[in-house]
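Sample pair:
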Amino acid sequence: MLDQAVKNSGLEGLFGDHLSTDRVRAFKPDPEAYRMATKAFELSKENIAFAAFAGWNAVGAKWFGYPTFWVSRAHAAAEELGTVPDGIGKDLHDLVAFVQTRR
């Protein structure tokens, strides 16, 4: 599913590996679901941009400590969960711009 989303957006080659919670058998917002990236990529939280297609998932990642971006394709209002993602956009092109500004 994730491979196809990147391919459909024409952004192949701009993203490294991506992960799925299937690897750790944990459901978000379980911290283990978010922690797997720090282990898999051997990076600190601050050096990983977490992209989510659900607002609650972006917030869960932000609670964990990631810089977060919510791809809000439907332009939905953010859930009121006590925090907001670091960036919000309409598609993966907006995500690329977000990542490039954080370098």
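Residues 72 and 90 are 5 Å apart (CA to CA).
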